[in-house]
Specification:
By secondary structure, this protein is of the alpha+beta class. The protein has eight helices and eleven strands. It has helices at 2-41, 51-56, 94-103, 127-133, 232-237, 256-259, 263-282, 304-316, and strands spanning 64-75, 110-111, 139-140, 146-147, 158-170, 175-190, 197-201, 203-206, 218-219, 230-231, 244-248. Strands 1, 2, 5, 6, 7, 8 and 11 form a seven-stranded antiparallel sheet that branches. The termini are far apart. Mean pLDDT is 76; it is low at 15-54 and 325-330.
Length: 339
Amino acid sequence: MFKLKYIIISALLLIIPVTDMAAQSKSTATVLRRKSTEKTETAPRASAGNTAARRANDVGEADTQWLKIVYRDIDLEKGRNGALKNTNDPSTDLFSIMMNGIADGSLPAYEYIDGVERFDSVSRVEPEGLLDRFGIEYTKSADNRPVIDALDMPVADVKRYYMVERYLFDSRAGKVKRMVDAVCPVLERNNPGGSGMVRYPMFWVRLSDINPGLLSTPVMTDDDNNLARHTLDDFFILNLYSGELYKTRNVANKTLMQLFPDPDDLAHARDSIEQRLVAFEKGLWTPAYVPPADGKTSKSETPRAEIKESKKTVSSVKPVKERTTSTRAGAVRSVRRKR
């Protein structure tokens, strides 16, 4: 008996250190994980310079299951579009921001080619050649770069922008995203050979190439509220602009006016495209049936399957005829008229 107690006590003494070591290692691992989590949570956020890159690469090709590319004509005289144009302060004007970036070489611009846009090194325009082509005066800096004076900037001639828009379905997020890919300023000048105005599309600039710091300038977007509550970047990300469609990406590479020469047909085609873009996202999901809170289901809210099942149950039950018993006991004489 004494030996048995000695063996049990010895076994307990061996187990206790092992348990303490396991608890200590578990506690140490917990502390390490906690420190690792704290380092992850307190990690610095990405800098503002990566905002445009994240916006452009937010949806990868593997996550894109549907894509529609459209082209819009943004008239700066209509609605909120005037926020892109500020003749009083060139520092907040989108055209001035782009031209200064092109002149100093920090912003790549690409040739405007009617019918197709290319964003490669071959299509990139030279700053001096661009300024000479459109008659914009400039001087040279010490490092031989063109410098445009604010008074020589033809801000008043920019009446509209052409815009490339992408509607794409992100399977990862489960929703349709509307993104601005590129913009093209359009000059409107008097026709040198006759009357009227002539449009001169200048160049394409990818929105993701513009420094986000330059687009962080506050702009006013509401005539009733004169506070500058948005920035130029917000103007594009929140889709505060409005403009008519003049083209959709198609196999024939034709504009809507070429496909629909009649004005009524053109207006109907634009409206139909806009409705299809909105209806595509709405048609992705079907609302689930949610019973009312009081537990009572009206006829209009009852699912069809339940209505069909209830009708089947009612029709399958046959009425039972009740048996009538005579109140008189004994035999009943047949009453027949004797002939």
